[in-house]
Design a protein that fits this description.
The protein is mostly beta strands. Helices cover 13% and strands 52% of the residues. The longest helix is centred in the last third of the chain and has 19 residues. The protein starts with a helix and ends with a helix.
Length: 362
């Protein structure tokens, strides 16, 4: 069975196609090379029962990323994102590669991708780039979502629906024994409704799988956006009957292109039959409630490359995972700045301006 799985992964890697991956954004048609730098800096105040956690509070570099994307030929594209704010060794550098994959698109309907990818799990909270998440569910905080693998995707002629099948290393892969995950993912957009749904089977022990059914729902009405994610988990059929689940809901409202206000609630529940050491531990029942505001100084131009934010969240309930992030009566406040730079576009603009200045002096 193990040999068959390895052969299957190899065949898919060579002849499969990738879907539109989560957390993409820099790609443009007919561009050989596109480079972006993005960073986020925060002042954090984290407390439990009103007592500040000094080690987790203060000024922090939350994210420092480089994005590189482009076309090798019209049918071959590549994408790479690397984090730099937590690199201490060569091994860390590899582990902090979020994704690095090559995609082949023989036509507008099909695509094939292999490399390090985002594990195709549904839900809008999961899909959002970490830089754009201020607080999140306990599941999101712990899942190991970037793994080696390959995927095949089919997009309809209208472009409204993409169905992806992915084979990759399991998020539970220990690095000692090879575990695999099999993911079926649907991304759809129909009027005011958009979907990120998935069915996932992730191996966590020899011959044992954790199954997910994830329904990511988004409703957009002009400047109002509502997101509701429902994740049901189980290592047995009985657990899939709403014994282990997470619910993530968020409401955003954009005011005059520059200010976005939001409120968000997450709830993680784990029954006592669920295996431990699987991101969420049995007996966990934790709720996070909060909200915040974002300000885009260049929003009048439709530009989101500079952002100021402030957000607050409060936790209620029990988290039995001693290494978990959300604890009862814990609170979290953040104020920060995010910026993104298109390096190539900036250099091109600078060259054009210098050439224009020279021409004006002639």
């Amino acid at each position: 069975m193990k040999k068959f799985t390895k052969i299957l992964c190899f065949v898919v890697a060579m002849f499969s196609l990738s879907a539109v991956s989560a957390q993409q954004g820099y790609e443009k048609n007919n561009e050989i090379f596109r480079l972006g730098v993005e960073a986020r800096f925060d002042y954090l105040n984290e407390a439990v029962s009103g007592v500040q956690n000094d080690a987790a509070s203060g000024f922090k570099v939350r994210y420092l990323n480089i994005r590189m994307d482009g076309q090798i030929t019209p049918k071959f594209t590549y994408s790479w994102r690397q984090r730099f704010n937590k690199v201490n060794s060569a091994a860390d550098f590899v582990n902090n590669t979020d994704w690095l994959h090559l995609t082949y698109r023989p036509n507008q309907n099909w695509a094939i991708s292999a490399g390090k990818q985002v594990v195709m799990i549904g839900g809008w909270e999961y899909d959002r780039a970490p830089m754009d998440v201020y607080y999140c569910s306990e599941y999101w905080n712990n899942v190991n979502c970037f793994q080696l693998g390959a995927s095949v995707a089919f997009t309809t002629n209208e472009g409204n629906d993409t169905l992806t099948f992915q084979v990759c290393q399991s998020p539970y892969d220990s690095g000692i024994t090879d575990y695999y995950a099999y993911n079926l993912y649907w991304m759809g957009s129909h009027g005011f409704y958009s979907a990120l749904h998935s069915v996932n089977f992730s191996q966590y022990a020899p011959g044992k799988y954790d199954a997910y059914v994830v329904l990511g729902n988004q409703f957009t009405f002009d400047d109002l956006r509502i997101q509701l994610d429902l994740m049901n988990r189980g290592t047995s059929a009985s657990e899939l009957l709403f014994d282990n689940f997470s619910i993530m809901g968020e409401i955003d409202y954009l005011i005059a292109d520059r200010v976005n206000i939001f409120a968000k609630v997450t709830h993680d529940h784990v029954g006592y039959n669920y295996d431990n050491n699987m991101y969420l531990w049995r007996g966990t029942d934790i709720t996070r409630v909060g909200g915040g505001v974002e300000y885009y100084p260049m929003g009048a131009k439709g530009n989101r490359d500079v952002r100021l934010h402030a957000a607050y969240v409060y936790n209620m309930g029990n988290n039995t995972n001693p290494g978990g992030t959300a604890v009862n009566e814990g609170s979290f406040f953040t104020v920060g700045l995010t910026w993104k730079i298109d390096v190539i576009e900036g250099i091109t603009s600078l060259i054009d301006k210098r050439q224009a200045n020279r021409a004006s002096k002639m």
